[in-house]
C-alpha cells in the first residue's frame, strides 16, 4: 500500500515537472517575441540576414496590429527593442520619422531629407514601399561603430506608416571615417557636402544643409559666398552676416573669418573660439574650409 502510494506520488511529481517545463518554454518563446528578437529563432542572423530582417519587420507590423499605433511607436523608441544591427524605424507619411531607438535625433525627419553620403535620396524609395515590402540599399551611419556602411533595409507599408529595419555590410568600405578620428571625419564631412552640391545642385544642397536634419553631433556645414554666411543650420540668424565683421571674430579678437576667406581648393584648417550650439558654451573649434565653385564650404568640431 505504502509502495503504491509512493509510486503514485512519484508519477504526480513527474507530471508536475513536465507541465512546468512546458509552461516555461511557452513563456520563453512568448518573451522572445516581444523583446526585439525576430520571430523564428531558427533564422541565423549571420547566414540569413535578409530573412532575419524580414522576420524582424514582420514582428513589428504584428505588434502594431495587436497593440495599436501609440504603444508600437513608443516601444520602438526604446533601447529594449533593439537587437544588434537590427532596430525598427517607423515613418509616418505626414509626420516623418516617429520611431528610431538607435538615433532619436532622426525623429521628425521627412522622406525628402533622407539622403545618403553619395547624394542618393533613399527616402523616396522608402515612401514608395507597399504592403508587399521592398528592399532599399544605401550608405548609412552604423550607430554601433560610428562608421558609414552599406545598409540593406526591408520596408513595409501599413496604414500610412512605413516599418523598416536592416543590416550593415561589415566588408563594405566606410565612406566616412569614425568620429573618433575628428580631423579625418571633418574633412570627409565637407567632402560629402561637396559631392551632394555637385550631384544635386546649389538649391537642393543649401536647403539640405540649412536644415537641422543635416547636423551630425558637432558637425554641421557652413558655406560662405562673397564674404557672407549663406548656410548655417545651427545659428540661423548668422545667415547674411559678413564673415569679415563680428560674425567672423572670436572673443579674443581673432578675425578667423579672414583666414577662412584665404583658403584654396586644397583646403586649410582654421582654429578659433566659437559658440557650441549644443551646450551654449564657447569652446575651441577646429574648422576645415575648402574653396569650391566660388564658395567656401566648412565644418569642424569642438574641444571638450
CATH superfamily of the largest domain: PAS domain
How many whole angstroms does the radius of gyration measure?
A: 26 Å
Question: Proportion of β residues?
Answer: 15-25%
Order of helices and strands: HHHEEHEEEHHEEHEEE
The CATH C-level name of the largest domain is Alpha Beta
Helix % is: 25-40%
Q: How many strand elements?
A: 10
In spatial order, strands of the major sheet run 2-1-5-4-3
Q: And the CATH topology of the largest domain?
A: Beta-Lactamase
Uncertain residue segments: 1-37
User: What's the architecture of the largest domain, going by CATH?
Assistant: 2-Layer Sandwich
Shape: elongated
Q: Which structural class is indicated by helix and strand composition? A: alpha+beta
C-alpha termini separation: 82 Å
- Could you report the average pLDDT, rounded to the nearest whole number? 84
**Count of structural domains:** 2
Total count of helical runs of at least 4 residues: 7
| Major sheet summary line | 5 strands, antiparallel
Description:
The protein is 32% helix and 25% strand. It is built from 7 helices and 10 strands. Strand 1 and strand 2 form a beta hairpin.
Short précis:
The chain has helices at 2-33, 49-67, 69-75, 122-127, 182-200, 202-209, 256-261; strands at residues 89-92, 96-100, 134-142, 147-158, 161-168, 222-225, 228-231, 268-276, 281-292, 295-302. It is an alpha+beta fold and 304 residues long.
Question: How do the strands and helices of this protein lay out in sequence?
Answer:
Blueprint: H1 2-33, H2 49-67, H3 69-75, E1 89-92, E2 96-100, H4 122-127, E3 134-142, E4 147-158, E5 161-168, H5 182-200, H6 202-209, E6 222-225, E7 228-231, H7 256-261, E8 268-276, E9 281-292, E10 295-302
Antiparallel strand pairs: 1-2, 1-5, 3-4, 4-5, 6-7, 6-10, 8-9, 9-10
Amino acid at each position: 500500500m505504502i509502495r503504491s502510494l509512493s509510486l503514485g506520488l512519484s508519477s504526480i511529481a513527474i507530471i508536475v515537472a513536465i507541465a512546468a517545463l512546458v509552461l516555461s518554454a511557452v513563456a520563453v518563446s512568448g518573451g522572445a517575441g516581444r523583446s526585439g528578437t525576430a520571430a523564428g529563432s531558427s533564422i541565423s542572423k549571420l547566414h540569413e540576414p535578409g530573412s532575419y530582417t524580414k522576420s524582424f519587420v514582420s514582428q513589428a507590423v504584428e505588434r502594431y496590429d495587436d497593440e495599436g499605433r501609440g504603444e508600437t511607436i513608443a516601444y520602438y523608441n526604446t533601447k529594449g527593442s533593439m537587437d544588434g544591427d537590427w532596430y525598427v524605424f517607423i515613418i509616418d507619411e505626414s509626420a516623418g520619422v516617429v520611431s528610431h531607438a538607435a538615433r532619436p535625433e532622426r525623429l521628425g525627419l521627412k522622406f525628402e531629407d533622407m539622403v545618403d553620403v553619395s547624394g542618393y535620396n533613399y527616402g523616396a524609395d522608402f515612401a514608395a514601399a507597399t504592403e508587399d515590402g521592398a528592399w532599399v540599399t544605401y550608405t548609412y551611419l552604423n550607430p554601433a561603430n560610428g562608421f558609414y556602411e552599406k545598409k540593406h533595409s526591408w520596408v513595409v507599408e501599413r496604414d500610412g506608416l512605413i516599418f523598416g529595419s536592416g543590416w550593415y555590410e561589415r566588408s563594405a568600405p566606410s565612406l566616412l571615417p569614425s568620429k573618433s578620428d575628428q580631423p579625418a571625419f571633418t574633412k570627409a564631412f565637407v567632402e560629402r557636402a561637396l559631392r551632394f552640391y555637385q550631384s544635386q545642385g546649389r538649391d537642393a544642397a543649401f536647403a539640405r544643409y540649412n536644415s537641422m536634419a543635416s547636423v551630425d553631433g558637432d558637425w554641421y556645414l557652413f558655406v560662405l559666398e562673397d564674404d557672407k554666411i549663406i548656410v548655417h543650420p545651427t545659428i540661423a540668424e548668422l545667415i547674411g552676416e559678413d564673415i569679415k565683421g563680428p560674425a567672423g571674430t572670436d572673443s579674443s579678437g581673432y578675425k578667423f573669418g579672414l583666414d577662412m576667406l584665404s583658403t584654396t581648393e586644397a583646403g586649410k584648417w582654421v582654429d578659433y573660439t566659437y559658440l557650441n550650439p549644443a551646450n551654449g558654451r564657447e569652446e575651441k573649434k577646429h574648422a576645415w574650409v575648402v574653396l569650391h565653385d566660388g564658395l567656401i564650404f566648412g565644418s569642424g568640431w569642438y574641444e571638450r
